[in-house]
Amino acid sequence: MKLRAKAALAALAVLVATPAAQAADPVKIGMVLPLTGPTAGYGKDGKLGADMAAAEINAAGGILDGREIELVYEDEKGAPQDGVAAVQKLMTRERVQAIIAGMNSSITLAESAITKNRILHVNPAAQADAITAQGSPWLFQINNTASTNATIFHTYLTEQMAPKAIAVMGENTEFNKAVLENLREIVGESSVELAEIATYDGATTDFTSIITRLKSTGADMIYVIDAYPARTAQIWKQIRQQGGFPMEAHAVGTVQRSAIVPAEGAMEGVITADIFIAEGATGDMARFIDRFTEQNGVAPNKVSLVVYEAVKVVAGAMDKAGSADDYALISDTLRGNVWTTPRGALSFDDNGRAKAPYFYIHKVTGEDVGLLDTFEVE
């Protein structure tokens, strides 16, 4: 009896070690989001999108012959050092097979230095061109680059709104630098004057002196370049306390309800833009919005969308490549195919950059944004 028991255990051990048994193990994807800190609103929105994508994939049978997707979350807290620590933990301790990380450009640059040539890394939202200009073959970006978004938005500001002079304020970050470089180029080709540019560091909380100085230039437009929702709300409250400007704009892709609601009406009428808006959606996008709203009790925003897309694209590429960890093959698969998402057809160029098919001009109205204009992205 003992010999038979030992033989049975040995047989079971062989079965557990076989590839067929191992195939049941979940595919672990590391999710690095700002779950606390100044950009926690992005983290909350992103997590809703990621969880919905994983649930849909698993309900449809998973990937790689039945393996489920398991999302493993770490908090980057809105700081580069915490983003680096989160990525390192996911790679070394959790042994994830891909990283989805990227809300803020400076943090994403720091994270990508750790993931480069070590693991598949998909950046869902951060926009700075420098992120995908590094030449990392396993790094991909779901959102448009800052220069792509800024070119459309700045052309709209200068040609459609046509201020006499623009005064600019924003944090000194990689995102800010990319946006400013584009603004100087677009303004230089127009009759609009760039009255003054004021920058500040991340620890600044009192913007009164900056706003006073910008108002003294006589500029008829204020343009704020800041990607932190809590600080965005504070800036616009202080602008409103000083009477505001005839025309007001905020950087592309950074204005969500997580900034508008805390601003308590101070952002009313501010012009911004993004690659997504729920208003007027049709087809796959409308169905995505309906499913998301039904499950979460709130409509999705851009952050929810791009994180949802990131999870779907990573899982789809692994499944099509037939591997969860052959990153060269998965990356070739990502670049070599067109991926169906709520936005439509999504494809990646040689730098790993995707491009949204449409771009929307927004105006803050109440506690959300409304649609002003739509452009096709060339």
Automatic annotation (TrEMBL):
InterPro entries: BCAA_transport, Leu-bd, Leu_Ile_Val-bd, Peripla_BP_I. GO terms for biological process: amino acid transport. SUPFAM superfamilies: Periplasmic binding protein-like I (SSF53822). Residues 1-23 form the signal peptide. Keywords: Amino-acid transport, Signal, Transport. Residues 26-359 form the Leucine-binding protein domain. Belongs to the leucine-binding protein family. This is Amino acid/amide ABC transporter substrate-binding protein, HAAT family. It comes from Albimonas donghaensis.
